[in-house]
Amino acid sequence: MTARRTKIFAGSKIRELRGRIRKTQQAMAAELGLSASYLNQIENDQRPVPPPLMAKLCTLFGVSEAYFGDSDEIRQMQGLREILGDPLFKSASLRPAELQTAVKGAPALVDRFVTLYRAYRTLAERGASESLHPVAGEGLAAPQVDTAGARVASGSAMDVVGPYDAVGDWVQRERNYFDEIDRAAEDLHEREGFSDGMLSVNLARYLQDHHGIRVVIDNELDSRAMLWRFDKRGRRLLLSDGVPSESSVFWMAQVIGRLGYGKLLDRVVRRSGLSTEDARDLARVGMSNYFAGALLLPYRRFRDATRLRRHDLDQLQRQFGVSFEQVCHRLSTLQRPGEEGIPFYFIKTDIAGNILKGYSATRFNLPRFGGLCSLWNVFRAFATPGELQVQVSRNTDDAVFLNVARTVGHAGVSYFDRPRRVAVVLGCSIAHASELVYAAGLDLSDERTIIPIGPGCRACIRTECRHRAIPASGFQIDAGGEERGVLPYHMVPMDEAPTM
Asked: Which CATH architecture has domain 11-69?
């Protein structure tokens, strides 16, 4: 299959970068060998960016081509479509062209609208919970209202949005790559000469020699549902008995990051713009986890190994002595400018379809308010625990991806144990298929093997999918009884709907 090159309209991003280096449009046009009128058309999205000019822009601004991709716009359009699928906006559905105009013309406003909607959902869910479970002896407190009778929430919309969402948005904006932390972890790994096959011994000795911390196995942590605990007073890192070695080394690496690089982690979090202390605390944990992953899988060494082994996840797992999930997660972070790996998306989900983690360096976008597409191979993975599921899929914007999914986690330790069932998915554009071992044996030229997946029913524009659970936004419903298709109703695009 020959990958189709999509036209890239990157006017707003070019204007932003030009503003950073304080160049006039005319000056930059001269530097690029263009006429000022042609550059003006590009910056106003009247013309796409041709490949030769794209190469010049990447050199001029010191960024990769992925920076100019339209994944952010696609993500915003999908978010708007999902939001407008809420019955609250039943009479306010917008045509795709109108959504695109909004995203291209006012991306910052779209972000604030999404934040406001999230705050609304959080307050609505909180209100429903309070009405069902009032505080004993107190009843329900009367809501604050303004002079028009509208309920008033304290704080800003950002304060109401959950910290997980806020931190997830920040990490996505940074494309899941934090250069200062990544390089610091890599430098430590190389400076200390850590060995991939002896990380547990290496990290335990480093903690003892540099921080006076002893690593101790504590048999009582399991009974208290604890995996590890840092005993500051006793200068001990207590690890639960029986946990996999890859988990132990990760926790040791995380503590090394907190103790030795705390100021660096705090500096990165302060620049995040997160407005609540809960979100900042969560971000600090995330950054210490990022440091741990970068220490166990140092950037250049890991990237070179992925190329050599054609991204064979099992081989990489054995080579570096880490878990399957840790390999997948690290692959999604290889976006160092000038030394990028393949742009991957990474998702971790439970058996109910709840997204536990999700990052994307590609045009693949996850639903933000609805459920996952049931055609996705992650659900087949739950039916075959431990087995790898390979899938070629086409998104609603015609982007084709190769992805793999597998369950992760551990089996129960007794009859009464209830282990959590989760799975991870790693995927990339089909354009990189030749670099992945998982393309072996696939007939990429046969369109019948490509699974048409969507971003979730609210935002999916496919009108004849028998797996649809709810109608999509931007469509009118025709429930006429003269015929019956795969759905009990017809979805008619608003552009084609009869006017009254």
From this structure: Orthogonal Bundle (1.10)
